Amino acid sequence: MTTNLKKFDVLVIGGGHAGCEAALVASRMGAETLMITLSFETIGQMSCNPAVGGIGKGHLVKEIDALGGEMGKVADATGIQFRVLNASRGAATRGTRCQSDYLAYKNVMKQIVLNQPGLQVIEGLVEELIFESDKILGIRTENEDYFGKSVIVTTGTFLNGQIHRGNEKIDAGRVSEPSAKRLSLCLSNNFFRLGRMKTGTPARLDKRTIDWDKLDVQLGDQSPKKFSFWESEILLPQVPCHIAYTNSSTHKIINDNLQKSALYGGEINGIGPRYCPSIEDKIVKFADKKRHQIFLEPMGYSEENIMIYPNGLSTSLPIEIQYNFLRTIEGLEKVDIIEPGYAIEYDMFDPMQLKSSLELKKISNLFFAGQINGTTGYEEAAAQGLIAGINAVLKTRNEQPLVLNRDQAYIGVMIDDLITKGVMEPYRMFTSRAEHRLFLREDNADFRLTKIGWELGIISKENFQNFQKKQIAISSLLKKTKIEKINPT
Ligand code: FAD
Question: Which of 74, 98, 230, 246 satisfies CB 3.0 to 4.6 Å to 79 for a cystine?
Fold first, then answer.
């Protein structure tokens, strides 16, 4: 074991959506930051659905962007189908969503992270946290100790992660990636409260084996709207999604094999996301439904990227049953699977142990963010990462933490829900969670948050000046509407 003598300001464990925002914002605020993650290759990886935003989640992306975070810009640069959901409803309920080229997304995010001044990134598996009474000192990997003034844990589904498919069980944090067992043990040995949750993902399909002519087409918006308030562009070609449907034969195969599903055969005890149910779940709970809609979403725009994500078909059935039920679906009669679906069970950290800054109540300078706090989704993770990153830096300077209120931001609603109510199931954002939702619109996120980002030193001078010009333009237009009268004739 060697000891790295350099003392960093902020150590970030994990390079997922929470870890990237945390490490980027900490270094942009001037903190010497070290990110330790399992592999450079998986920085910013989309573990499941290749999409960003949606109802409630789009609000989070806009808020992250308005504060100076990265997710919105990367989504703009790598989106291959943009749609505003609820477009026909009131402005407050609209949610921007994009399908992403999943390889491009992680590559762009990885380049931003690896080229960020003040941020060092290394590969490694963190096994322990190093404490001195009620303060965090650093972290321990298999062969080295690292010390930092603040530490942020963003390990997603990796703590004691176990993949299930049929009765096959593999210790893993995601497919082909190790499970972080020792870190989980270290947390429970130190009397932190952990829970167990689960989630699942569908098979990835080979687009060359799908009969596209039999499927309905779903196009993106004709004039796509980007996420970011700042300079960013929709760069990639826009592609269609397709819609398929399950039928009685699909349902029969799944019903006949329920005992082989890890989710139904009693192999998994963790609590799963009610709003992203597996196909087994949907067929059992909505037995009267004759069919379920499946969105066939391309995972990239180029010819070489042959993977299709069948949104709505998450499963933990054995591979041969996955083949059998998929091939009953019109258009998928000859489909090939590139990566079979699976369920994953993992340890999560009870977020009621956290303050509203995402710092632990009983250990100072230790922060938790992302899926580990019992949430689900890239946007929820990124938003927590950003706040944890900001507060980890403020803590090193003995400054007051940034706490967003429930009437100020969806981010504030989410963190307040997590730390005051805890989680009974994976937490995802919905507009219905925000009691001030008529005021917390996507389009006014900059009005609510950009000044804060500027004062924290995250928003550039140029962006802040552009924002101020927008403020002036809007308020002069509003004044004008009060003075000027237009006769309908
Ligand atoms: P992750 O993206 O998981 O990133 C964790 C990071 O920590 C990784 O970079 C990893 O390398 C690193 N790491 C972990 N342990 C260590 C360690 N000990 N030392 C060093 N580095 C470490 N979300 C949805 O919204 N809907 C879904 O349907 C859905 N399905 C999912 C299905 C599966 C199978 C999985 C795995 C996830 C699914 N998700 C889903 C969740 C979504 O992927 C997460 O919400 C999101 O990725 C969480 O981001 P994060 O940054 O918290 O963690």
Answer: 98
Neighbour tally for 272: CB within 10 Å:
21
Q: Tell me the pLDDT tens digit for each residue of 95-119.
A: 999 999 999 999 999 999 999 999 9
Please work out whether the CB of residue 318 comes within 6 Å of at least one atom of ligand 1: no
Reading the block at residue 462, the tokens are 């140029």
CA of 142 to the centre of ligand 1 (A): 21
Q: Strand locations in 109-166, DSSP E?
A: 119-123, 126-132, 135-141, 144-153, 162-165
Q: What is the pLDDT of residue 262?
A: 85
341: nearest Cα among 310, 370, 368 = 310
- Identify which of 106, 126, 204, 371 to mutate to test ligand 1's pocket (most ligand atoms within 8 A of the CB): 371
Q: Is any ligand 1 atom within 6 A of the Cβ of residue 126?
A: yes
CA distance linking residue 368 with residue 348, whole number of Å:
10
Instruction: Using the predicted structure, report yes or no on whether residue 330 has a pLDDT greater than 80.
Output: yes
- Residue 467 Cα to ligand 1 midpoint, Å, equals 33
CA pair distance 76, 332, nearest whole angstrom: 31
pLDDT for residue 266 is more than 70: no
- DSSP for 84-98, written as a single string: EETTTS-GGG-EEEE
The encoded tokens of residue 317 equal 């059935």
How many Cα neighbours within 13 Å face the side chain of 69? Answer: 35
| Model confidence band, residue 154 (pLDDT cutoffs 50, 70, 90) | very high
Q: Check pLDDT > 90 for residue 437.
A: yes
Three-class SS state of 381: helix
Closest residue (by CA) to atom 28 of ligand 1? 276
CA distance 116 to 23: 9
- Which amino acid type is present at position 43? I
- 109-146 per-position pLDDT tens digit: 999 999 999 999 999 999 999 999 899 999 999 989 99
- Best residue among 21, 39, 48, 386 to mutate for probing ligand 1's pocket (most ligand atoms within 8 Å of CB) is 48
Q: Collapsing DSSP states into helix, strand and coil, what is residue 272? A: coil
Task: Tell me the H-state helices in 150-231.
Answer: 181-189
Predicted local confidence at residue 263, as pLDDT = 76
